[in-house]
Amino acid sequence: MNPLVEAIVDMRETDAVRMATEMLDQGISPLKVLDACHEAMAAVGQRFEEGVYFLPELLLAGEMLSQISDKVKPHLQAQASAEKKLGRVVIGTVKGDIHDIGKNIVTFLLDANGFEVQDLGVDVPPQKFVEAIRDYSPQVVGLSGFLTLAFDAMKETVEAIRAAGLRDGVKIMIGGGQVNEKIQEYAGADAYGRDAVTGVSLAKKWVGAK
Ligand code: B12
Q1: 185 pLDDT exceeds 70?
Q2: Cα angle at 51 between 70 and 193, to 5 degrees?
Q3: 119 lines ligand 1 (CB under 6 A)
Q4: Do 152 and 121 meet the contact criterion of CB atoms below 8 Å apart?
Q5: How far apart are CA 155 and CA 67, in angstroms?
C-alpha cells in the first residue's frame, strides 16, 4: 500500500498530512495525492461498513482529507491560467447529504481550470439550485452526493430545474462516492463524473473549450 494511503487508513493524522505535503513539495502531481486520498477513503469506508471503524474514524478521515485538500489547493491553483473564464458552474451537495470533501475538490479543480464556480455548500434543497441557476445563469450544474438517499435528492433537484423551465439551458453532471451511470439515468442528469478530472472534462466539453 502507498504510505500515504496507509497513514490515512491507520488514522495517523500528523504522518498523513506530512507525507502529502512532502509529496507536493517533491513535485508529485496534486492529482496523484488526491488519488491516494480516494483509495484511502474507500478503505476507511469499507472498515466502517465492516464495523471495524465508527463515526469518530470517519470524522478523523474527513478532517485529514480537508487538511490535505488545503495543501493541494495552491498547487492546483498554480496550474490555473490567467485567461478569461471558460464558463460558469453552480455546484452543491444535494439535500440531506453533508459530505463535501469530494465536491470541494471538484470545485477547486474547476476553478483552477478557469471556470467561475458558485458553490452552494451542503444539504442544498432543490429550490436553492433553481434560484442559483436564475441568479448566475451557469452553463453547467454539478450535483454531489455520497449517501444512497442522495440519489432521490438528485432526481428531485433535476425535476425542480425542469419544472422551473430551466432544464434546457443547463447541462447537469452528478458525482460522489456511490454514484454511477445508473444513478445518472435515474436522476435524469446529463453525465456522471467519477472524479474531479472527469468533472472538468465534462464542463469543458459542454462550454466548447478544449
Ligand atoms: C469522510 C466521510 C464522512 C465525513 C464527511 C466529512 C465531510 N466534510 O465531507 C462525516 C464523518 C461527516 C460523515 C458522515 C456520515 N457518513 Co460518511 N463517509 C465518509 C467517507 C469515509 C469518505 C467520503 C469522502 O469524503 N471521500 C473522499 C472524496 C475525495 O471522495 P471521492 O469519491 O474520491 O470524490 C471524488 C468523486 O466522488 C467525484 N465527485 C464528488 N462529487 C462530485 C460532483 C460532481 C458534479 C462530479 C462530476 C464529481 C464528483 O470527484 C471527487 C474528487 O475526485 C465515506 C466512505 C467512502 N468510501 O466514500 C463515508 C460514507 C459516504 N458515509 C456514510 C455514512 C453512512 C455516513 C453517516 C450517515 C454516518 C452516520 N451514521 O451519521 C453520516 C451522514 C451525514 C449526512 N447527512 O450526510 C456511508 C454512506 C452509505 C450509504 N449507502 O448511504 C459511507 C459510504 C461509508 C460506508 N461505507 O458506510 N461521513
Answers
A1: yes
A2: 45
A3: no
A4: no
A5: 32
Mean pLDDT of 124-132: 98
Q: Is the CB of 209 under 6 A from ligand 1?
A: no
- pLDDT of 93 reads 98
pLDDT surpasses 90 at 124: yes
Nine-digit cell string for 94:
444535494
User: Is residue 113 over pLDDT 90?
Assistant: no
Confidence band of 56 (pLDDT split at 50, 70, 90): very high
* Among 153, 150, 151, 132, CA closest to 141: 132
Q: State the CB neighbour count (10 A cutoff) for residue 77.
A: 13
81 burial type by CB count under 10 A (0-12 exposed, 13-18 middle, 19+ buried): exposed
CB atoms within 10 A of CB 57: 15
Q: Which residue is closest in CA terms to ligand 1's atom 30?
A: 102
Any bridge partners for residue 89, and if so which? 117, 140
Q: Which residues contact 132 (CB under 8 A, 6 or more apart)?
A: 90, 92, 118, 120, 138
**Per-residue pLDDT at 115 exceeds 80:** yes
* Closest atom, ligand 1, to C-alpha of 66: 8
Separation between Cα atoms, residue 104 and residue 37, nearest integer Å = 14
